[in-house]
Amino acid sequence: MANQEHAHSTATEHKDLSALAADGSYDASPPLVTGNLAFDDITEMVSKHAEKKKTPLMWWILFGIGLAGSLMLFALLAYKIWNGVGVWGNNQPVGWGWPIVNFVWWVGIGHAGTLISAILFLFRQQWRTAINRSAEAMTIFAVMCAGIFPAVHVGRIWVVYWMFPVPNQMEMWPQFKSPLMWDVFAVSSYFTVSLLFWYVGLVPDLATLRDRAKTFWRKRVLGFLALGWTGANRHWRNYEKSYLILAALATPLVLSVHSVVSFDFATSVIPGWHTTIFPPYFVAGAIFSGFAMVLTLLIIARVAYNLENIITINHLEKMNIIILVTGTLVGFAYITEFFIAWYSGVEYEQYAFLNRAFGPYAWAYWIMMACNLITPQLFWFKKIRRSIPAMFTLSIIVNIGMWYERFVITVTSLHRDFLPSSWGYYAGTWVDVLTFIGTMGFFLTLFLLFLRFAPMVAMAEVKAVLPEADPHHYEEGDGHGTGADVAFIQPAQETESSPDTDPDDAPPPPDAS
Amino acid sequence: MKDSVQRSSLLTWLADPLQATRDTAKRAFQSTTDRRVWLAPLGIGVALLVLSAIGFAADPEQFYFSYLIGWSFSLSIAIGGLFFLFFQHLTRAEWSVVVRRIPEALVWAFPALFVLGIPILFGMHDLYHWTHEELYVEGTPEYDAILAGKRAYLNTPFWIGRVVFYFAAWTLIAYKLYTLSVRQDVDPDTDIPAQQRTVSAWGLPLAAVTTAFASYDLLMSTYPHWFSTIFGIYFFSGGFLGAVCLISVLSMSMQRGGMLKNVVTKEHYHDLGKFTFGFVVFWAYIAFSQYMLIWYGGIPEETVWYKYRMEYGWGYHSAALLLGHFIIPFILMLPRFVKRSRPILAFWSVWLLGMHWFDLHWVVAPVLNEQGGFHWLDFACWLGLFSLIVGLVMYRLSRHALVPQNDPRLAQSLRFENA
Which residue of B26, B336, B415 is in closest CB contact with A493? Predict the structure, then answer.
């Protein structure tokens, strides 16, 4: 058809599409909660797991495993503190081995929780409500696991508090010029804000649990934690304001924490470490690994706790898309680093990267490449994005790949120092390996306790994204509950000026501040 | 493409690959101006470029540098427009539908920018030190071992081939995004939103890689010894910021001209303002990361780039960049009312467009001039090229509906509110 034929006849011709668009059948986004759940169903489905008397056998089995891992962790930490860092594989010049790798891996995992709760909130991504509670819990526990490694790596752990600027008679202060010092502040403020954010979000749900509580102590404890929440209009108003402020504070933290972690490496002049792309590249990698961990945990939890209607396959697919995007970003950074190392003309840089890909640690490099850049590309296929077995496998692969990324960065740049006399091969010892496995047990213990005692889904937030929560849901014809008979083009709600006045000339709106 | 919208003749293809569809636009979305709206900026652009040509006769080297800066400015903004569209389509954004036609018209700047880039080819000897043949003759005092090592990448035929490839990629993506959307205005194929998402999905990685390498080739290699892995992201962050600012400015100026009344509201400006603010911070984050890591490392091969930008008056430029591109807008754009007030947001958008050019000037000009400051050609080339590009954007906007009028999310966008 030529465009002339369209002139003056568009209004009728386009009604089909307009109608489709208006009644939501055109390219409609799927509902966030499936299974026709009512408000009460959501309360029941989520709260009952925190309230039931009988704990499932599977929980006890996993808790036993987690507890065993935690005990092993604490035993090995005691062993390490008694004997010193020598029980680890660290040597000269590889002064940073598994401990820093594990630290970065765990901190990175935490980032998904903050991204979901803060950045996706600011971007009005309502699907986040189904997963933010458990992801934030994961963040807090992951940061706890991460903090263990640098703390015990300081050597003389009994003076670990010297990392904080505590006034003292010796006038000794931390080395503020050291990025390791910045890490202390970055990670501790990250932990504090994450914990606060998590707790503020929990308050309405804790009040729900309090109102359902039957026993004396349960009522008292939940009553204390719920801060006198009654669901009053004023409470919600304050809640939403504080939530927005905390989201705004947590958003730069998503970027800053892992940027500071990347500074630990990039401020040095070690080939392979000193490269300016590190901060954004580390942040992308952190989100990548964090989402993989959220997937791993929630794929199991949603089935174990019958939450498939709240954490739907569409939620999982969206997370897979984020994994695809961030994984590709990370891969892009690998290629950029490699290219610029060659372009720089600095022979040490060039050697560092060739050594990574073809040296004694080539096996680790290619594991990293395969897990982080290549296999996540499978998520281009919608079938794989929506297949539970495939995404579970890929989430594990990404977790492995991101551990190897940090291993490759740390070890390949250190194990061949500038002088060939200080070249060697580094490997972790059994203490390294078992300590790392121990932190996984510690994490599992904490996460199981969370699943058992706290509302694992943000009930109040999920209810707010149900269609019934829209104040106009049951109304017709006001332009909000649009039916097919409502005109497609609705004048937007321009409140600050009448149509006659030029909006540019109007004074600033009164509600502006 | 199906022929529901006819392709335009070869002559006008550079300006708009499609025949005008203005008559099919709903009245509320029709451009109501005459041709002055695009003729005026085109005229100013041509006049300034003629003036620049006089400057070329006087000082060709300065002309080439000024021209590269001005051209990169418009190019980076067009690239920013591409990324803006990718993000909107891939996230199925609702709020932005009413302003989306502006970046759609913007991205067809690539063919014109390609033609306008031809003068740079003639100035390569002045702009790019690595084009000098004597650097590669071993045994001579001019021999440069580092650049000889880069010669496999930095050589004129390969450089031209790469730039042609970048433009081919950008033009292809822009063509798809622009024509799909205009076609939807007259032929509401229910398949179009999915196609727009598909183009955005493969366009995003393609544009990301080409943008990064274009920034190395066009800007970073003006000082060919220096290298920084974050440079591509730095270039992207400024361009995206510029694109968002240009969208705000063009939307407001059309509203001043009586168009899009009650279509684009302060709610949309609020979101554009948040994007602007966000990218002010993102740019600062990237700029700080690059500066801090190089400063901290203290390796002379890297710090030298900043050293040139710290002395002989360039230090004032560096300080002004820090203040004007980050600190001042960061503080003053924080309040909510700033983003919801058209005059104030207009001020900051124009300010930041200026700062983006200042940033590119700071990146490129110290390669030529040891002394800080500006040459009148800097302004003539920058504003001449930019006026030309804006005139072409206005030309395209005047030929089609001002809003993607059949987009299925238009209704949500029209009634959008910042909850």
Answer: B415
Q: Once rounded to an integer, what is the mean pLDDT over residues B151-158?
A: 92
CB proximity under 8 Å: B 307-336 to A: 335-336
Which phi and psi angles does A97 have, rounded to 5°? -115, -125
Higher pLDDT, A379 or A126: A379
Question: Cα separations (Å) of A233 from A229, A353, A468?
Answer: 11, 59, 18
Check residue B4 and give its pLDDT: 61
- Distances, alpha carbon A421 to alpha carbons A92, A93, A270, A357, B303, in Å: 11, 11, 17, 22, 30
pLDDT value at A467 more than 70: yes
B15 neighbors B392 (Cβ within 8 angstroms): yes
Residues paired with residue A221 on neighbouring β-strands, in sequence order: none
Please tell me whether the peptide bond between A93 and the residue prior to it is cis, using omega within 30 degrees of 0.
yes
Assess whether pLDDT exceeds 80 at residue A2: no
Tell me the three state secondary structure of residue A423.
strand
User: Measured between alpha carbons, how far is B98 from B306 in angstroms, rounded to an integer?
Assistant: 42
A199-232: string of b/e by CB count within 10 Å (b at 16+)? eebbbbbbbbbbbbbeeeeeeeebbebbeebeee
In this predicted model, what pLDDT tens digit does every residue of A242-252 receive, in sequence order? Answer: 999 999 989 99
The dihedral built from the CA positions of residue B307, B309, B315 and B318, taken in this order, carries a sign that is: negative
B293 closest CB neighbour out of A11, A276, A345:
A276
| B 112-151 residues inside an 8 A Cβ radius of A | 145-147, 149-150
- pTM attached to this predicted model: 0.89
Task: Name the residue type at position A344.
Answer: S
Confidence of residue B36 (pLDDT cuts 50, 70, 90): confident
Contact B341 A266 (CB under 8 A): no
Select from A177, A277, A381 the residue whose CB has the most chain B CBs within 10 Å, as the one to mutate to test that interface: A277
Contact A26 B208 (CB under 8 A): no
Contact B415 A279 (CB under 8 A): no
pLDDT band at residue B419 under the 50/70/90 scheme: low
| pLDDT value, residue A476 | 55
Contacts of B145 in chain A (CB under 8 A): 345
Residue B7: strand pairing partners: B18
Q: Give mean pLDDT, residues B13-41.
A: 84
